[in-house]
Specification:
The complex is a heterodimer of chains A (about 400) and B (about 300). Chain A is about 40% helix and about 20% strand. Chain A folds into two domains: about 200 residues, Response regulator (Rossmann fold); about 150 residues, Response regulator (Rossmann fold, 3-Layer(aba) Sandwich). By secondary structure, chain A is α/β, with parallel strands linked by helices. In chain A, the strands form three sheets. A seven-stranded mixed sheet of chain A has the order 7-6-8-9-10-13-14, with helices on one face. In chain A, β4, α5 and β5 form a beta-alpha-beta unit. Chain A contains 14 helices and 14 strands. Chain A starts with 6 loop residues before the first helix and ends with a strand. By secondary structure, chain B is mainly alpha-helical. Chain B has one domain. Chain B has a two-stranded antiparallel sheet. Classes of the chains: A alpha/beta (about 400), B mainly alpha (about 300). At the A-B interface, α1, α2, β2, α3 and α4 of A face α1, α4, α11, α12 and α13 of B.
């Protein structure tokens, strides 16, 4: 095969290829929004739900005539749950597509990783992350977190299992910020004395957790609490089962979704798991189930997908309210459309827009929770639910309401 | 758009320094290094921690990152006394992961999984923030130039010939009286130092580093750069690193022109395309875009 390319023509072709995207910038009349979700990597079980929820909200609003008389254009990128890739994707969203907000980041390291770029360009961020560094790093007040910080999860799960009369615990957690802070919250509630082992962390992506599990159940605690994600928890649970542990296994509902139940089957019987749940009776959650084509059930369905719907709905309502796509204006309007009493409660974008256009003050109540922010942009408390796996189904055993 | 190109060029700069370092170790000397991400992390965290936690000026912390990479490189090369090729590859991969896991687990020092925030940027106070990205590109380009110059000097010097001899057959080089072991340690240390430098430059550019950044995939990107560019040829590598960044980033734009692909399909298509582009490049240019020039013996001078 003959193919000749000298250095000059190669460089020329390279430069030309890089310049092509100039024509891809959104038309000036469109409102550009970036969706940066974990579609592969550690967040892969959750990312696609978030992506789909973002897209549904945008499609619906465009069909109904858009925001501020302009169409909304969603640019979707995959963060690969990796901050190195995510920063470059965010760079493209900000500098090429000209987005006014980046929504849907999931792991704290990604949210924090893209933050310097977003702050410099006055781009609003909406995430479901847990690190308590987020409000600290957010110097301009442009970040909104749609997930309660994880110490709150740990405390809630602690309260719920304590009321079940369990007295001794073994503790280990996946080594990431989310699960570690959850463990701290849990210890706060059950107390150091209830722990039979020194709590420790394990690393993700190991093929076996034999020595970790041996250490965990060495003193035979009544229950073990393992804050985790689904991939590593599956391996940890297999090992617990193999070693014949008979106490109660407690974890988050993130770890016990359909993927886990499929892998473990009947051996999953009796696992107790907790999660901040949408008010199941909330109209917004019911609408979400219809939009996503799901049946109502006791299980927590699409935990992050519901947050995805709320992120984009809140963002678009805020843009309509602010009458502008400048980051600081949007950020200010986010509080106005979500937080505060004595306003008209709305459960979806269409109703919200109608109310705003009729000159009313609104308070959006979402599918993932009632969506009220504190002054740092962190979402306030959500209902918590503890479930147990019986016959392969999640059965609600207790609920904590805020 | 131009801001985007500037930042991609900056990333290409980090890749270029890493690729030049790998070329010294593998392209020239034949020592396989799969632990690039570890050396990169070592540099990033050394400079990041010294400036963010110990308050050292960058004029000291960046050289310390180079020194840390240099020392680590030398130590790893000691292992090569008894290990070569595939065994060395496994050891270096292990070293890279060990460094990452230490950073992940020693959270009292490194902040572990929550990531380290680094405020300091070189010469930040001297210019307006909007000009800073362009300045930083120049700053990185300056270091790429220095690294390139040093690598070229080594390649052309008598030492370069020795290194190529070691690469082709270390026993022959040893029989000819060359100290194979010492050369290996030297070159691995120098390469490690460059990787440390790249890490420090990355840390102060991104201002937020966490262990997840330094997964072994980083090493794969650098290997791709060296193989695509042409192992053994420093100029080829610069082009190779640029090409790899172009493949990685250019494919992002598919989503914008093919709106009917949903984000999930899109990200798979993107990764498939990157693979295809690499295969096509190597099918058409099996020895890389700019292959290593073969040494040719010209008779004329002697015969004349």
């Amino acid at each position: 095969m003959s193919f000749h390319m000298n250095r000059r023509s190669f460089l020329a072709a390279g430069t030309a290829a890089l310049l092509v995207p100039t024509i891809l910038r959104a038309q000036e009349s469109d409102i550009a929004i970036g969706s940066l979700t974990p579609n592969t990597g550690g967040g892969a079980p959750f990312g696609p739900n978030i992506t789909a929820a973002h897209k549904r909200v945008v499609d619906a609003v465009n069909a109904a005539g858009g925001i501020l008389g302009r169409q909304v254009r969603l640019f979707q990128e995959n963060s690969e749950t990796n901050p190195e890739t995510a920063v470059r994707a965010a760079d493209k969203l900000i500098n090429v597509n000209g987005v006014c907000a980046i929504v849907g980041t999931f792991s704290s390291s990604v949210t924090l990783g893209v933050m310097p770029k977003c702050q410099a360009a006055n781009v609003v961020q909406m995430c479901t992350s847990s690190s308590s560094d987020i409000p600290v790093a957010d110097e301009k007040g442009l970040v909104f977190n749609f997930q309660p910080l994880s110490p709150i999860w740990g405390r809630a799960i602690g309260e719920l299992v304590k009321s079940r009369g369990i007295e001794t615990f073994g503790l280990m957690a996946l080594n990431n910020d989310f699960t570690r802070s959850m463990m701290d919250g849990f210890i706060e509630i059950v107390g150091q004395d209830a722990l039979l082992n020194e709590p420790f962390y394990y690393n993700a992506q190991q093929s076996s957790y034999r020595s970790e599990v041996t250490q965990l159940i060495e003193k035979n605690p009544q229950a073990v609490f393992v804050p985790s994600y689904v991939t590593d928890f599956t391996a940890v649970y297999k090992e617990l089962y193999r070693q014949g542990y008979e106490g109660t296994v407690i974890t988050t509902s993130l770890s016990t979704g359909p993927q886990f139940k499929e892998a473990i089957g009947g051996a999953a019987e009796g696992i107790v798991h907790g999660f901040p749940v949408p008010a199941i009776n909330s109209p917004a959650y019911k609408e979400y189930l219809v939009e996503a084509g799901l049946e109502a059930s006791d299980s927590v369905q699409h935990p992050f997908g519901t947050a995805g719907r709320d992120q984009l709905t809140t963002l678009l309502l805020a843009i309509e309210k602010a009458g502008s796509t400048a980051g600081p204006d949007i950020a200010k309007a986010v509080w106005e459309v979500t937080t505060g009493e004595g306003k008209t409660t709305v459960y979806n974008l269409a109703d919200g827009l109608a109310a705003l256009r009729a000159g009313k003050d609104i308070n959006y109540s979402g599918a993932s929770g009632s969506i009220e922010f504190d002054e740092e942009g962190m979402v306030l408390g959500r209902d918590f639910q503890l479930s147990e796996i019986r016959d392969g189904e999640d059965v609600v055993i207790e609920r904590l309401e805020y | 758009m131009s801001a985007y190109l500037v930042s991609m060029a900056t990333y290409a700069g980090f890749f270029m320094i890493l690729a030049l370092a790998l070329n010294l170790q593998w392209g020239l000397t034949g020592m396989v290094n799969f632990g690039i991400a570890g050396f990169y992390a070592l540099g990033a965290y050394t400079s990041g921690l010294l400036s963010a936690k110990a308050g050292w000026p960058l004029g000291l912390s960046i050289p310390m990152a180079i020194a840390a990479g240099f020392a680590a490189g030398g130590l790893v090369a000691l292992l090569s006394m008894r290990l070569r090729e595939d065994f060395l590859a496994i050891v270096t991969l292990g070293v890279g992961e060990v460094i990452r896991l230490i950073v992940l687990n020693e959270d009292q020092i490194t902040e572990g999984p929550r990531g380290l925030r680094i405020e300091a940027q070189p010469f930040q106070s001297l210019m307006a923030p909007e000009n800073y990205p362009v300045f930083y590109l120049g700053f990185v380009a300056f270091f790429v130039a220095i690294t390139y110059w040093i690598c070229e000097r080594i390649r052309k010097a008598p030492m370069g010939r020795t290194l190529r001899a070691i690469r082709e057959d270390d026993v022959v080089a040893g029989v000819l009286g060359k100290n194979v072991f010492r050369h290996r340690i030297q070159i691995f240390a120098i390469g490690g130092g460059f990787m440390g430098l790249a890490g420090a430059l990355y840390a102060h550019y991104s201002q937020n580093i966490s262990p997840e950044v330094f997964m072994p995939t980083v090493a794969m990107f650098i290997w791709m750069s060296v193989i695509v560019g042409g192992a053994g040829n420093n100029r080829g590598l610069l082009i190779g690193a640029g090409t790899v960044i172009m493949f990685l980033e250019g494919t992002r734009f598919f989503g914008d022109v093919l709106p009917w692909l949903d984000a999930e399909t899109m990200s798979s298509v993107r990764i498939i395309t990157i693979g295809l582009l690499l295969i096509v490049t190597l099918r058409l240019r099996p020895r890389g875009l700019l292959p290593e020039p073969k040494f040719t013996y010209t008779r004329d001078k002697i015969a004349g």
